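Hey L., structure's done. Input below.
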Amino acid sequence: MPLQRNDQSLLKALESRRLNGYLVYYASDRWWSGLFGAFGHCSLFINRYGFWIEVQHHYSHTFIDIHPGGYRWQKGLPEGAIVQPFLREVSLNGIRCPHLLQPFTCVETVKAILGINRWSIVTPRQLYRYISHGIEEKAQAPTSTA
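Output:
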């Protein structure tokens, strides 16, 4: 297999990493589902090296699963789920300030992984609006090597 040339220098590669994947929003079965509708919970699917890494945070635990290449993970999504592609350059030397007055929710987990430092983003709907309204880099659908 021929090597592909990477235009990114080694120093640049050590400063940041590029993440692409999907954010998935869906209704929660908790008491707040009536308040947020389809935006009651969010999870993250990251495409790395031909695998899909699923990250779902709940109050008592964080569920991480690795799916082989392809989009088979989409079959397990709940009905009515909203799938949003993203492409993000995340700084490796960035400092994330913990917000002591906010609980560590699914939104805080996604913000930590994607390097988003906005204290004003608290609900999945706010995260969806932040990423979809041009603040984030516009992304094409991520591709898989399977």
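Residues 17-132 form one domain. Strands lie at 16-26, 41-48, 51-57, 62-67, 82-91.

-- N.
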